Each structure stands twice: as C-alpha cells, then as structure tokens.
Amino acid sequence: MKYLGYFPALKPDEVKERVVQARKAQKIWAKSSFKQRRLFLRILLKYIIEHQDLICNISSRDTGKTMVDASLGEIMTTCEKIHWLLSEGEKWLKPEYRSCGRSMLHKVAKVEFSPFGVVGAIVSWNYPFHNIFNPMLAAVFSGNSIVIKVSEHASWSGCFYLRIIQTALAAVGAPENLVEVITGFAETGEALVSSVDKIIFVGSPGVGKKIMRSASNTLIPVTLELGGKDAFIVCEDVDVPHVAQIAARGALQSSGQNCAGAERFYVHKDVYSSFVAEIVKIVKSVTAGPPLSGKYDMGAICMQEHSERLQYLVNDALDKGAEIVARGSVGNIGEGAVDQYFPPTVIVNVNHTMKLMQEEAFGPILPIMKFSSDEEVVQLANDSSYGLGCAVFSGSQRRARHIASQLHCGVAAINDFASNYMCQSLPFGGVKDSGFGRFAGIEGLRACCLVKSVVEDRWWPFIKTKIPKPIQYPIAENGFEFQESLVHTLYGLNIWDRLRALVNVLKILSQQPPAPTSNRRRND
C-alpha cells in the first residue's frame, strides 16, 4: 500500500495528439529495414536478460505478484516472443506466393503484408511488462507505430517500462513517438479507439463489447482477448501427484490472476479422492504475503475490491452446498493491506449452478468436480460462456487429444498446462465470450498488417492479358458457347470431356466472328 507516484489521466484531445505524433513517426519507420528492426529486438533482449531483477521488482511492486511469478509471466514469455521474431518474423512478413488456378497459369499471384499505420492497445494490469511488450513487439516489427493505454491499476510500472523501449528505439535511430504509453480512465481509452487504425484490447467481455461499438464508428479491425474459464481435466489413468503439482501452478500462478488460468477442475471419479488429497496437501503448504520479501509462495490480489468479489463467489458456492476442504495461509502483512490478500482455497462438491463454475474468478481458487465418462466431461467443459483454453491429462495421449478436440476453445494443452503461450510461434486467443482474433505466431504478426492480393503477368511483356475475341465488346453471338466450352475445358471431370471442349474452343476461336449480339438486337 505504498505510494508509487502520480500520472495524469489524459483527456481525449491529448490522446489524439499522441496518435498524430505516432502517425508521423510511423511514416518514417515503415521504410526501416528488417536489419534495423532486428537490432532493436536484440538491444531489448540484452537489456531484459541483464535486468531481470529490476523488471520483476517493478512488476511485483505494482501488481503484488511474487518475483518467481513475474519471471515466469513477464520475462520468459517476452523473451520467447523476441526470439521467435528474430528467428522467423521477417519470413512471415515478406510477400507470400500463391497458386493461380487453371485459368490463370500465365499469372503470378502473391499476398503482400504492409503496416496498418498506428496500432492502439488497451491492456490489463495482471502482467504489466509483458502486456506492453506483447503488442508492441509485433506492431513495431511489422512497421507500425503503437499507442498503448495501460491499466489505471498498473500505470507506474507501465510508464517505467516505456523508458526501456524508448531507449532501445533511440539506439537504432528510430523516430521519436513511435511507441507511446498513455494513462487514464475510460474516456482515455475511448479517444484512443476513435483515433487509431487497429485496436487490440485485453480485458473483460463487457468492456470488450464497448470497444467493438466504438470501433464500428471508424470500421477499424479489432482483436479482443477477454479472459477465460479454462477447464483442467484429469482422467483416471494419470500420475496423480505429478498432475496435482501442475494443477496448483495453473490455479495459483500470480495469485490466480491469469487470463488463461485453470478455473474449473474436472477429475475422474476413480482418482477424485486421491487428487483432492494431493491438492489439499499442496495448498495447505502455500503462504501468501508481501512479494518482495522473498519468503512467500504467493503474492497479493492487485485490486482490493477484487478480494471481496472472490469471497462473494466462494460464499455463493457454499450457500449452494459446496465445501471448503483446504486453505493456505497469509503471512505477516500491514494492517492497511489485509484486504489485498486472498488465501489459496480448495472447494469440493461444486456444480454448474454455482457462479464460481460459470463466472471468471481471476483468483487463487480451485473448485474440483468429479466426472464419470469422457462424454460427460466434454459436456461439462463446454458448458461455459467462455472459450479461451483447456488442459487435458491422461495416460493415453490419444485419449487426451480426442477429448481436447471436442472442446470449444482457442487453446488446448495435452498433458500440460499453458505451455501454448510459451510457444510464441502459436496463435493465442479464444472464442465465445473470450473474444476473437489472435496474438502471437504468424496469425498475430500478420494481424498487424494490411493484407493485399496482387496478380501480375508471369512472362510480361511477352505474354499479356488479352480478352478472347468471342467475348470482346461488342460480344459475339457465340460468346456464351465459347464460355461454356472454356469452363468444360478447364474444369471438366474427365480428360475426354475436357479434350472435346478444347476442340470446340479452338474451333470457335478460328471462326470468322459472327455478327455481334448488339447488331442483332438492333436488326430485330
């Protein structure tokens, strides 16, 4: 609860001026070479590796996560993204050649990717370093500028991290104002949406819908990552102690404040008791406390009012028959910060009538429900308005894959949890109330680009596009017969039909053109 600093809530006209300056910078940066862009990434990567303690310390002080959680969620994910862009990014932004089809063999077809201009991003508070670097890296590497509105709950860290980016950009000779971080509340975000060429939003479904409505005024593309209620499925043929450790990490990482955190645990009835016993043992050993002391397993809840919401979800479940079987402990904390800590909690006898199993909790709670068959657990897992990710554990890889393939979500981990996000070559995003569009991977990188289809003559100027005589204006009387035969020639289902049609095409082309249809109409 220490005072960190003051930052202004920017007014709409101030936001629009920042976007104007970013647009000027982007016009220069769009002409930059990939060599210059890779140098920018290498400078960032070197700084991050050498200053991990500082970066994690800033994140911990602003959001309450432990240094270990900051390292996992902030440092490693960002380094993975930089490494992937250095390895493959340029390849996926170069023109991509495509086939032209039978009727266009004399043509070359390609897809070109060019920068949008100014990308806007409105990001959440839970991982302040990575949530800034994630959209920034893709936008800048693809030739855009970016203006990022950080959460009002993580403005101090966001503005500190901006200095790292600006210093690296200056070192490679990039124009000023290419990357901006702005602070403020709802009107600041609304002004950003109305000014940029694309918007990326990380937050709640309710605010995501408001972003979409605002973006519809200027018809800009939108990427929405709106959280999840991820299912963690445990079949009866697993190594229970091994999976229990992964489950605990999936639920308690960063005090459970993860978009892709494990929020619903479905465990087969044959191992339900042993799994619950293992989880209880782990959770009882976990202590929450001030993150920078280095003595605690789990940190704080970022927002004081969120602890109250977590307790409300627990109370609703208890009122409907659930039971708390274990809670972790809270260490020595200041009197003014008591409400910012929520002990890790294991709850059993849960069902889908409880808000805890339907609404995103975003906290260190493990509700565990038993199932009897694969068909039942698929139905349970899909009974959610969210669809971000899932994790399926089974001694049979094939069985786990089969279950995961039936779940309506954007991310699936087989005998693992959240490793998808560490693999930055993969797209990340969800369906249903979890949003749409993708971060990371080829899809996320190209989502920062205008996609243009280009067709040109393959052997120009020796072979040029020419309209066949029968369908030149004015169209000949046998124009449709020519077209009909041409379709049979190109797409007929067997070789003999195509050959017969080709003969007719050549016959029509060799004939003296009949009177055009327009002359016939006039004579009639």
UniProtKB/TrEMBL annotation:
The keyword Oxidoreductase belongs to this UniProt entry's keyword annotation: yes
A Pfam family the protein falls into: Aldedh
Domain annotation Aldehyde dehydrogenase: ranges: 3-454
GO molecular function, one term: oxidoreductase activity, acting on the aldehyde or oxo group of donors, NAD or NADP as acceptor
Active site: 225, 259
Keyword Nucleotide-binding: no
Biological process terms in GO annotation: aldehyde metabolic process
CDD domains listed in its UniProt record: ALDH_F15-22 (cd07098)
Alphabetical UniProt keywords: Oxidoreductase
Family from the record: Belongs to the aldehyde dehydrogenase family.
The protein's name in its UniProt record: Aldehyde dehydrogenase
Species in which this protein is naturally found: Solanum tuberosum (Potato)
Lineage of producing organism: Eukaryota, Viridiplantae, Streptophyta, Embryophyta, Tracheophyta
